[in-house]
Amino acid sequence: MLENMSFRLPVRLSAARSRRTGVAALSVAVLASLVLAGCGGSDKESTDEGTDPQSTENGSKLAAVWPLTGLPSDGSTPDHPVIIVKVDNSRASDPQYGLGSADLVVEEMVEGGYTRLAVAFYSKLPKKAGPVRSARASDIGIVTPTHAALVASGAAPVTKRRLSKAGVNFYEEGVVGTYRDASEHDALHSVFIDLPKFAKSIKDKAYVPGPYLPWGQEAEFTGSQPATKINVRFSAQTTTIFKYDGKHYLNTDTYARSGDQFKADSVLVLRTREGDAGYRDPAGNPVPETLFFGKGELMLFHDGQLVRGTWEKARRDSPLVLSTAAGPLTVPAGHVWIELLPRNSDGGKITFKK
Predict the structure, then answer these.
(1) For 78, which of 12, 232, 284, 297 is 20 to 30 Å away at the CA?
(2) How far apart are CA 280 and CA 198, in angstroms?
């Protein structure tokens, strides 16, 4: 049966696509030195965007594993930084390009009850990614831990100021590699980017980040209960559905182009606070801001199993620290889809089927 999960912890396929518009052990030693406090978290927003380098990063040479997946690398260091592309996630984005080459995907809430994807590329760079859409202040907490280049179609003036203050390397439509292709999309959703071409233009910005998550071994993961179908409800307009096929969690209502889908080895749901970005979109909708720092509850889905715990992120640019009641929690190396899901009080809900 579908089980509704409520916590008490302190702390871009035809039939399926209609729902969105219808009702529509490497980093552990470092991270373990951070003390995980209680998981209540204050609702007061910090004004400190944070720009300090992280102790987990060396900035120049790639380690034995890829920082965004924890998977073994060949030791060759990319001559470009991590590149995070903001990709539309509404029906108008169909088809999305590039997701199958991504290392990591983060889904975040935007205005009107919809979501947008922050798609991170490092080990592979597709020649076409998008549709590229605008940035949000929520991206600061996603981007700064990696010193990534953030690519978007644009941003509101207040958001550009926030990104600049936080030290984000922000690139918008018009930079090398961006182009328009309206053969499958309307004008608003026709911005794409050729990432190899873009990467060559920003070689001087290359930086090797530390581990994005506390990566661990498969044998370290012990699930507490079965979970093979996940419904992540952001709003009445947007529910993201995953089904475990025995190897990957597939987004069954994806807009990704056929054969270009992101195959998640794990789904990490982080319950987050939601603030007000301070402006409205052209339709008059207030623009929310995901406050991706502080503390909260988590659900980690892997190998058809679920583990509950808590997360902590001292600042927007800090690494994530994960734990359970038993101690530090690691994520099995692989491709992870992260859901920044508003808390129950802010409208987010998650259910799963055994």
Answers:
(1) 12
(2) 31
pTM above 0.70, yes or no: yes
Residue with structure tokens 């328009």? 180
**Residue 172, φ and ψ in degrees, nearest 5:** -125, 180
Mapping DSSP onto H, E and C, the string for 245-289 reads CCCCEEECCCCECCCCCCCECEEEEEEEEEEEEEEECCCCCEEEE
* Nearest residue to 252 (alpha-carbon basis) of 224, 223, 225, 228: 228
Residue whose structure tokens are 């529910």: 239
Superfamily of domain 2-41+77-353, CATH level 4: YerB-like (3.50.90.10)
Of 306, 307, 305, 270, the closest CA to residue 290 belongs to 270
